[in-house]
Amino acid sequence: xxxxxxxxxxxxxxxxxxxxxxxxxxxxxxxxxxxxxxxxxxxxxxxxxxxxxxxxxxxxxxxxxxxxxxxxxxxxxxxxxxxxxxxxxxxxxxxxxxxxxxxxxxxxxxxxxxxxxxxxxxxxxxxxxxxxxxxxxxxxxxxxxxxxxxxxxxxxxxxxxxxxxxxxxxxxxxxxxxxxxxxxxxxxxxxxxxxxxxxxxxxxxxxxxxxxxxxxxxxxxxxxxxxxxxxxxxxxxxxxxxxxxxxxxxxxxxxx
Length: 256
Known about the structure:
Blueprint: H1 15-23, E1 32-37, H2 43-52, E2 65-69, H3 71-76, E3 81-82, E4 95-99, H4 103-111, E5 122-125, H5 134-137, H6 141-162, E6 172-180, E7 183-184, H7 187-193, E8 196-203, E9 208-213, E10 224-232, E11 236-249, E12 252-254
Parallel strand pairs: 1-6, 1-8, 2-4, 2-5, 3-11, 5-6
Antiparallel strand pairs: 6-7, 8-9, 9-10, 10-11, 11-12
Helix pairs in contact: 4-6
């Protein structure tokens, strides 16, 4: 099964909210996704929850997660775990962090993906654009776009290698990136490789965020979708409520 809302959230303190999250479905579902949102909106926290909730395989063994990120970003802004998760949770024993600093390093890693001694069941790339340094591309948009496409293609090829002879959900890919003016950044580049796009939007009146499935204008479901509302507490990411009819209005998100 592809990515669903319940992969990113849990609410141990409110069983009704948890049931609502479980009942939310995304159709069609895909095993490659982009999570796009503003700075400091909890993207890393949601990705850590995704890693922690990965189910065991058919043998009952825990499946491994490969988490690629920048060292500075992880050290400066460590993730807030969702309610019920602790840093000592058994699930995090299956999480392998690898620090990447540049887009060249990222491409080199995925080009040699087949040499890994243990293929992961989930690959996470956090803060994708941060690897493409301004000092390298110096405003050359065409060169930057080419590098982004080449990197995404290598990532997808590596994931398909890991799936050989198995189902698509045997190795999933989740990527996070910044949004721009309420919309996913460089969406026209991402969507070919990452067909499922989840958008995080600020809810200024509520002081939190809304997590929804992004649909481009013109899509049959572009006017409304489901959303999970949450806020970042002092120690945890806290789910506030679920809305099955989240209204989209000129890329500004309001309660339906």
